[in-house]
Amino acid sequence: xxxxxxxxxxxxxxxxxxxxxxxxxxxxxxxxxxxxxxxxxxxxxxxxxxxxxxxxxxxxxxxxxxxxxxxxxxxxxxxxxxxxxxxxxxxxxxxxxxxxxxxxxxxxxxxxxxxxxxxxxxxxxxxxxxxxxxxxxxxxxxxxxxxxxxxxxxxxxxxxxxxxxxxxxxxxxxxxxxxxxxxxxxxxxxxxxxxxxxxxxxxxxxxxxxxxxxxxxxxxxxxxxxxxxxxxxxxxxxxxxxxxx
Length: 245
Known about the structure:
0% of the residues lie in helices and 49% in strands.
């Protein structure tokens, strides 16, 4: 299956000591990650929902803003969801991404922020994240394999910028995605996030619109069941709606 979204994962403390203790853990030695798009067919994925653009690269920058969704952990007591922007992953095997997590761990909501240079493990930020926080994010290629990843919680007033290197990156796509992360056994149950609202989504500095060359609206589905799907996009704005875990 062709990769389409960058991985954003929570790795157990045994695997990566830098992970936040608040993140819901899988079995010891396993990990949860946001990875490349698992394509079922054109515009359908088992783990991504949102918008990607490819075929007219190289793609050297992507950005968007979103409101952190509140997950319904009564409906999906143990489940995961992630919201991010990234480069690569839709037509390539790497993803350079940053975003937020909204998970349910035994009926309790868990929120946090991260960046990931897939296939490397993700890094979780320690800053507090709550449902309703406003986020802005950007990933920019600086040359020679270096990427600048910026994530800001404008509600709480914190921001992080990190420079990371991934020499194998192909700059083959740019995307704004709601994702069902994956574990060692495959795609994990998708937490009921209701609706995630993205705004100002850009690729290579231009707002994404329905006429953007190479634009692909991606619906998340499994076994014929739609799990999440994006609305139409206008001036970089769209919403993504949960339907099933």
